[in-house]
Structure formats: C-alpha cells, structure tokens
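WARN no homologs supplied; continuing
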Amino acid sequence: MQATVPAGLDRKEAEIYLRLDPKRLPKHIAIIMDGNGRWARRRHLPRVAGHRAGVASVRSTVETAARVGISALTLYAFSEENWKKRPKSEVDFLMGLLCRYLQQEVPTLNKNRIRLEYIGRQQELPPTVRSKMEWARQATAHNTGMVLTLALNYSARSELVDAFRSIVDGAARNGGLDHLEIDEDSVSRHLYTRHLPDPDLVVRTSGEMRLSNFLLWQLAYAEIYVTPTLWPEFRGAHLLEGIAEYQKRERRYGGLADGHSDHHSPKSVRS
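OK structure emitted
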C-alpha cells in the first residue's frame, strides 16, 4: 500500500517522500545554514543579498518539515561568533532581517501549527529584537504542531558553561555544594534544549565538514548529512533527500550492528 503524500508538497517533494518510510522519520532535525556569503559572491552581490535570499530557503524548509510530520526543527541562524566577528553593518542587517522575518512569517507558522522557540544568549541581543522575538513566540505559543527553534547568538560551549553554572547555582540554593550531583541527565536538564529530544539528524549546507560549535552535547549520536547545496538554494526537496539518506543509515548508538556479537569483550564498542 503506497503512502499518502501530505498536502502541500510540490511534485519533486512528493516524489522523494514516496521513497521514505513515514514511520522512521527523524523526530528532531538540526540544520547548519551555511553558504549565504558564497552564494552572493558568485553572483557579484553583497553578502547581505545572500542573507536576504536565504529567507526563502527557511520558509520552504520549515513548511516542508511541518507538512511531513517532523516534530522539531532547529535552525542555526546566528552564532555568538557571528555577533563578535562580523562587521557591525552586517550584524545590524541580520537583526533587521530577523525582525522582518518574524513579522512576515507568523501567519504562515500559525497556518502550519508551528510553535516558535529560541536558544542562545538572548539577553545580549538588542531590546527591539528581543521584543519582536517575544511577540512572535507568544503569537505561536498555542500551536500544537512542529517546534521550530531558532538558534540566535548561540554557542554550544557557552550553552555548556551556562548549564554548569545553573547546576552549581541550584545546588547552592538547595543545601550547598555538598549536595552537588552532576551526571548526563542533570546536564541535559539544564541545557537550552531541555524541552526537546536530541537531534536524530544534523544537516549542513555548502559542503563544509564541521559542526561550528552547534549543539555539541546534543549531537553526540546524530547522523550527519552534508550537502554541497548553498543555503539560499536549499529547499524542502533537499531536506527530504537528507531524510532519505538518514533512513539508509543504521543507528547503533555505540553498540554493534544487529546480528553481530563481540566475543572478545563484554562491552559494546563505539562505532
């Protein structure tokens, strides 16, 4: 029996979707959106033109993910390093672009029942930007579909620092540091993403082979899919191709493949 194609997919997306197993979709996909500058440079345009073009990619990717039933999508929109190392004019443009995106996209998010969240050190962003972010979050807060998380002024190392500080502060308020207990579960409970499952799949555009300080704790066992497609050219069909590749993988979480055993050691080996 052939799977039913979700409403709203275009012809190419539908063709790829029919190759997928709807029961084995990743619950949480994280995307490192890379290549805006290269896209603009190849067209002899300013970098900001690449950022502007990338908004259409966000819209297509988000809508397709929601339509096929992905539970959570996290987009690496603006790193802490971007904030510190990019020219002020580019940072100012990105802040304005974010505000315009939020203003324009809330109706689309609501139509697709998408709830908007953020991770990162939001307190360091300009007050006008934080106000618009909170407005958009509140406007989508009652939606019950996919959770779209924008990583803004985000750094995985800063996230871990903040998590450890939170753990220590909590212990100090609850009987002192003699009661301090740190294990994997306690760290996970203090991360920015504590309301989300760890990503099953991380997608990186533009062909670069690095995680760029993104969700380093959460991506410990995620499948990595790298595409040479530059972010402004990425669309929902590319996301579905990444999911198709994900479904070809065998996820072992450090154990052995099915049907194989290790007679030399009682412990699982890390793949």
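The radius of gyration is 20 Å.
OK
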